[in-house]
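Q&A log
Question type: sequence-to-structure
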Amino acid sequence: MKRIVLIGNKSWEVEPILNALLNVRIRPVALPNPTQLHYPWTFAQGTAKPRAVWDSFRQTTIELWCIQDIMDAKWNPSSSQGKHECLPKILAYRSEKPDIVVALGTAALGLNGGNNNGCVVLGSNIFIHNYHPDGQNPESVWDDPANFEKVLHSTVNPALFQFDTNTIQLIEQRLLKPYLNPSANISVLSDKDNIGVSVVNITNYADYANSDESGLQQLADTGNTLPVGSVETTHGVIRLLCDAPFFFISGITDRVGHFADDVNGKDANGNVKTEAQNFTAAYNIGVCLSYVIPELVTLVAQTHAKPSKATAEA
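Response status: OK
Response body:
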C-alpha cells in the first residue's frame, strides 16, 4: 500500500483545511469522504493519531496530521525543537514509509511591496533559517548545520505543479477573500522551483516584525535566483522528517513585514480580525489540496507501477 502524508502545523490551520476537504460543494467529485475522521479532536495532547485518513483510495492511504495535536504538552506549541522531536510519531504510525510528504500551513508573501494575501502557493524547495542561533531562545534550540542556511531541493514529480486551465478556474472560484488587505488577484501560484523560507526557533509572534526579512536576506546572501514562494516557520521542519519526495502548500495571510497589519490588524470598528484572516488562508489551502489529492494519488501510482512484461523483456 502506498502512503501519502499531509502535515499541517496548528489546529487552527488544519481544521479549516478539513472544512474544505469535507465539503461536497467545494471538493471535486474525485475526492471521497475520509474513512477515518477525528474531528473535533478529543484525544489527549501528544496522542499519535491523524485528523483524517483515506484508506485504500486507489491503493493508496492518505493521512492528514496536525503537529500541534501530537506535540508533547511540555513544549511551547510554536517550538521548532518540539515539532522536530515529535514528528517521528507520524512515521511510526504505519509500517510503510511515506511515498510523498506534503507540508501545509499559513505564511507570508508579497515581496518588494507586493500583495498576495489570499493566494495559495505551491513549491518544493526549502530554505531553513535559524532566527535564534546558539540557543538564544531556550524554548526552541533546534539546530541542524548540515541542512540550515541552504536551499534543499526535492525529487517530487514536476507534473504536480502543472494545473490545467479548467482546474485552476474551479479552485479559484472557491477561494475566499481575506478580510484585511486582500490581494487584487487571489489565485494559485504553483511552481516546483518556488522556495519555502522557514524561519525557525520562533516562539514569540513579536519576532515576526523582523524574522521574515531576516530569512529572506539570508537566502539572498547565498546568491539564490529561484523564486520565493512563502515565508513561515514549519515547512522546513516537516521537510527534514524523512527522505521522501516533498512539496508544500502555503496559504498567504500577510505581506512580508506586515504581520501586525494583516494578521493582527483591526477593521474600521476596531475589531481584531486575526481568526478571520487565518481561517481564510487555511481554508484556501484545503480548497487547493482537495484538487491536488486525486492527482497526487495518480502520480504516486504511476511512479510505483510495475513495468509490463513486454517492457521488462525489451
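Response note: The first helix runs from residue 11 to 22.
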